[in-house]
């Protein structure tokens, strides 16, 4: 297990390097630069700006410099948020995204798996149709439609919940964005669970368990659930990474200061360091969660052994 | 100021948050004319008449009888568009930042709710007869938020910092009229050579390179604000953080959450704290205008930064009293690339295209917020009579007939139509206008237009290079309330001249205006310059901007003004 982890860790380094290199050179290929604006800057100021951010050096040298700083955990200063370093920005935005996304994915997992299992047990009956109908709707309504609808109903018309912002960070402020984030995830997870649960319920070992007269409840909880979760877990890895690194749409609509917005804003502003910082951070999280998923496999599936 | 927006000046929207904009000072006509015509009299005293103390204008009397009572909690929530990026007055870029800076700092000159210039830290000032030397007398009770006195030295430091290329200020051009500023920004002189000096603690002298009638207006711009040197030296770039930031405005910074909000509280050391009513100010980052409107409707915001254009009809029907629309210092136009065919040297063709556009259709049916159809380049500003194309007085039908004639003159015909590319930066309103213009050109002249959109930074790049562009959309928001902020744009050496327009006559007229002391003569030069511009037609004027926002009825003291500037200290919350 330890050796496996170590191997995975070492294997992640070249992956990250390729990611960094690709992102670094691709963002530089985009036309326009961080200091472009309608009124051309005085040459001396532009030169000083370029020097301050080392943009005056040849690109390979900048890349090496960037890697060196990265090794020291320094993502560099942001071009757009000039009072902040990229590390500071990520560190202020990530806890917010983590809290929102973490809650959302947890709820999505519990609700989605429950709903999916119920649908599988009541296959082709009203309960199944209800769950699948709702989840089809959840998947088909994009969250830039769902979120404003939620706000309109619960904040503007009913006045129960705040329409946006984090306020004092209380639960009231989290409810709507968490729900908006969780809904499509619940839908996906319910569908995945239903599909694999139906398959598992038809397999021989479940039939054996039934033949031995075990209660349905015991069969599902003790024997069927674990194997049925395999596809859900592989979906959860990247999904969790995506949700906890923030959703641009949700953050913008609810005015939540997470890190999702930094990525899009950074790209549009040609804020090279910020884009790179978010890419590296996101890439690392994806690698980490994929690793966790593989570990979870070993626990869920007795056929999987790591050594 | 950069402008990437359409109907109303663009506020950085989710997908286009890079058009930085700062607008500055509102050249107060009364003050200016008096100052220049009666240079040796007690100018400051004169200047003071007609403008009451900051914050007193526009307020309803308070008292049970009139039914106007103050709310118990004096907290205001402003929708403030994009994240400010930085609160450093010299490094700021963009309206959202300057809205916060006006609460945190105060310049020599401030702006009343109606946009008039009023004394800020400078209580009085004198101007030399040649208009080249300004002497400001600072108020005795001006304090930093830690209790230190605000001295002339603090302004010297701030202004030098603005001009110093090492500061990396993107708005150093605002201080360019100060003696030696341009050479300092170019790196040819040290910042100490700036024509600014502290005669004593409370007297500041500023020397100019030429008479600049709008100079006082520039001094309300954040880039000219004083800086508390000890805290800057102690904290470096972190001096703008809550706890570190020492300002001299009516409020101090208590909390700043990137992409969320800043929270300000009263600065007890502010000299006019007595007439300040609002205790706590929130400036919320509200990039998404639709979401912003919902927060406003849920009473979480007292005023929005902007409104979603698509919801204008709904707003007009349901919340008409809370919609505030006011003229704004901006001009929307289409530019020609004069360095390449087909527009190089083809005035008849440029005029034909300009005349074929029906501006009423654009302002009434597309932008629809009350924009003014434009036949000239300079929007209504102080001390200036806007010029128009001679055809402005004609009917649209007459214009179209003339357009057809010119089109034939230019060597095109229905059999040999012009094929042209029209470039705009990706945004819905620009697209709708471009489609309308293309169809007008086709209907009237038979022109075949290809409409091309590019993301903002790519579009800027294309425009500046002048290689591929033929016709491009553009807009300009004035940096100060004076025609010069528009007149300088088409100068042959201007960093904004993406037409490749190069007219000696135009340059000479604008240069003459820059050196002229007499306001009337100066306006005459600028007006003549605009006529030359309209005759040469490097651009097609389309409309003048308006600002549109929602303001709750209980926000008292708010007045829309042409610069769209406001300060929290000038408003108060009524009981509701």
Rg of chain B (C-alpha, Å):
24 Å
Instruction: Give the H and E element order of chain A.
Output: HHHHHHHHHHHHH
Number of domains of chain A: 1
By DSSP (H or I, 4+ residues per run), the number of helices of chain A equals 13
CATH level 3 topology of chain A: MetI-like fold
The CA-CA distance between the termini of chain A, in Å, is: 5 Å
State the share of residues found in helices of chain B, binned by percent.
Answer: 25-40%
- Tell me the overall shape of chain A: flat
Main β sheet profile of chain B: 6 strands, mixed
Q: Per CATH, which architecture of chain A?
A: Orthogonal Bundle
The CATH superfamily name of the domain at 328-547 in chain B is Dipeptide-binding Protein, Domain 3
Low-confidence stretches of chain A: none
Q: Quickly count the helices of chain B.
A: 17
The oligomeric state is: heterodimer
As for the CATH topology of the domain at 328-547 in chain B, it is Dipeptide-binding Protein, domain 3
Unreliably modeled segments of chain B: 5-66
CATH homologous superfamily classification of chain A? MetI-like
Structural class of chain B: alpha+beta
**Mean residue pLDDT of chain B:** 86
Summarize the structure.
The complex is a heterodimer of chains A (307) and B (576). With 307 residues, chain A is an all-alpha fold. Chain A has helices at 2-29, 43-52, 59-71, 86-121, 126-140, 143-157, 171-201, 204-211, 216-228, 230-244, 248-254, 260-269, 272-300.
Explain what this protein looks like in three dimensions.
The complex is a heterodimer of chains A (307) and B (576). Chain A is mostly helical and 307 residues long. Helix content of chain A is 75%, strand content 0%. Chain A has helices spanning 2-29, 43-52, 59-71, 86-121, 126-140, 143-157, 171-201, 204-211, 216-228, 230-244, 248-254, 260-269, 272-300. Chain B is α+β, with helices and mostly antiparallel strands. Among the domains of chain B are: 95-238, Dipeptide-binding Protein, Domain 1 (Dipeptide-binding Protein, domain 1); 328-547, Roll (Dipeptide-binding Protein, domain 3), CATH 3.10.105.10. Chain B has 17 helices and 18 strands. In chain B, strands 12-16-11-15-13-14 form a 6-stranded mixed sheet. A 4-stranded mixed sheet of chain B has the order 1-10-9-8, covered by helices on one side. In chain B, helix 11 runs antiparallel to helix 13 and helix 16 (504-515) runs antiparallel to helix 17. Chain B is globular and about 75 Å long. The chains are: A mainly alpha (307), B alpha+beta (576). The interface between A and B is large, with 54 and 60 residues.
């Amino acid at each position: 297990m330890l050796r496996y982890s170590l191997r995975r860790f070492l294997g992640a380094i070249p992956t990250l390097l390729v990611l960094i290199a690709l992102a670094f050179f691709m963002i530089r290929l985009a036309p326009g630069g961080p200091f472009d604006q309608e009124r051309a800057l005085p040459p001396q100021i532009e030169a000083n700006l370029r020097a301050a951010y080392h943009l005056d050096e040849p690109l390979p040298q900048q890349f090496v410099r960037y890697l060196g700083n990265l090794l020291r955990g320094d993502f560099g200063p942001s071009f757009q948020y000039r009072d902040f370093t990229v590390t500071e920005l990520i560190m202020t935005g990530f806890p917010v995204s983590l809290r929102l996304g973490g809650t959302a994915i947890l709820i999505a997992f519990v609700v989605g798996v429950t709903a999916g299992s119920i649908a599988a047990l009541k296959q082709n009956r009203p309960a199944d149709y209800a769950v699948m109908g709702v989840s089809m709707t959840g998947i088909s309504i994009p969250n830039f439609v769902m979120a404003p609808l939620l706000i309109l109903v619960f904040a503007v018309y009913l006045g129960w919940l705040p329409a946006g912002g984090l306020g004092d960070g209380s639960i009231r402020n989290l409810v709507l964005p968490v729900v908006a984030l969780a809904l499509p995830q619940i839908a996906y997870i319910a569908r995945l669970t239903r599909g694999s649960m139906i398959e598992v319920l038809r397999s021989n070992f479940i039939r054996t368990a039934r033949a031995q007269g075990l209660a349905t409840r015991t069969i599902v909880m003790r024997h069927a659930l674990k194997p049925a979760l395999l596809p859900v877990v592989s979906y959860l890895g990247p999904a969790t990474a995506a949700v906890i690194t923030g959703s641009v749409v949700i953050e913008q609509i609810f005015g939540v200061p997470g890190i999702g917005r930094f990525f899009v804003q950074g790209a549009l502003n040609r804020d090279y360091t910020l884009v790179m910082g978010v890419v590296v951070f996101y890439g690392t999280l994806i690698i980490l969660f994929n690793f966790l998923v593989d570990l979870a496999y070993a626990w869920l599936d007795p056929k999987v052994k790591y050594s | 100021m950069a402008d990437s927006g359409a109907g109303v000046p663009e506020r950085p929207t989710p997908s286009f948050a890079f058009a930085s904009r700062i607008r500055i000072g509102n050249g107060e006509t009364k003050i200016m004319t008096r100052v220049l015509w009666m240079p040796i009299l007690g100018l400051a005293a004169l200047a003071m008449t007609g403008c009451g103390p900051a914050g007193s204008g526009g307020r309803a009397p308070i008292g049970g009888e009139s039914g106007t009572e103050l709310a118990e909690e004096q907290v205001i929530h402003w929708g403030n568009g994009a994240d400010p990026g930085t609160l450093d007055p010299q490094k700021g870029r963009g309206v959202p930042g300057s809205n916060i800076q006006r609460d945190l700092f105060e310049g020599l000159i401030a702006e009343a709710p109606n946009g008039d210039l009023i004394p800020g830290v400078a209580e009085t000032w004198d101007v030399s007869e040649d208009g080249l030397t300004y002497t400001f007398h600072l108020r005795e009770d001006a304090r930093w938020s830690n209790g230190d006195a605000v001295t002339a030295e603090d302004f010297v430091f701030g202004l030098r910092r603005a001009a110093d290329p090492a500061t990396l200020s993107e708005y150093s051009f605002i201080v360019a009229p100060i003696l030696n500023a341009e050479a300092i920004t170019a790196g040819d002189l040290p910042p100490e050579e700036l024509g600014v000096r502290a005669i004593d603690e409370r007297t500041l002298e500023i020397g100019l390179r030429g008479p600049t009638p709008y100079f006082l207006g520039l001094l309300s711009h954040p880039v000219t604000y004083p800086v508390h040197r000890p805290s800057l030296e102690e904290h470096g770039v972190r001096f703008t953080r809550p706890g570190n930031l020492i300002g001299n405005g009516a409020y101090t910074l208590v909390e700043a959450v990137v992409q969320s909000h800043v929270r300000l509280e009263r600065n007890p050391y502010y000299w006019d704290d007595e007439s300040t009513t609002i205790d706590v100010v929130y400036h919320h980052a509200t990039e998404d205008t639709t979401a912003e409107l919902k927060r406003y409707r849920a009473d979480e915001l007292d005023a929005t930064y902007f409104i979603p254009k698509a919801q204008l009809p709904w707003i007009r029907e349901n919340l008409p009293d809370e919609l505030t629309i006011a003229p704004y210092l901006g001009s929307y136009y289409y530019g020609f690339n004069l360095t390449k065919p087909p527009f190089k040297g083809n005035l008849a063709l440029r005029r034909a295209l300009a005349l074929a556009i029906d501006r009423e259709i654009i302002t009434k049916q597309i932008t629809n917020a009350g924009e003014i159809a434009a036949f000239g380049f300079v929007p209504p500003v102080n001390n200036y009579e806007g010029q128009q194309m001679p055809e402005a007085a004609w009917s649209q039908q007459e214009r179209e007939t003339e357009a057809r004639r010119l089109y034939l003159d230019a060597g095109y015909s229905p059999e040999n139509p012009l094929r042209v590319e029209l470039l705009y930066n990706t945004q819905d309103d620009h697209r709708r206008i471009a489609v309308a213009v293309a169809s007008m050109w086709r209907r009237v002249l038979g022109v075949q237009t290809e409409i091309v959109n590019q993301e903002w930074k790519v579009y800027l790049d294309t425009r500046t290079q002048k290689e591929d562009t033929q016709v491009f959309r553009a807009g300009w928001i004035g940096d100060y309330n004076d025609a010069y902020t528009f007149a300088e744009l088409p100068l042959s050496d201007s960093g904004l001249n993406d037409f490749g327009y190069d007219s000696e006559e135009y340059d000479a007229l604008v240069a003459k205006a820059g050196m002229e002391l007499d306001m009337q003569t100066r306006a005459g030069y600028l007006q003549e310059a605009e006529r030359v511009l309209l005759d040469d037609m490097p651009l097609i004027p389309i409309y003048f901007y308006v600002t549109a926002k929602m303001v709750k009825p209980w926000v008292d003291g708010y007045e829309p003004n042409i610069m769209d500037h406001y300060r929290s200290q000038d408003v108060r919350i009524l009981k509701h």
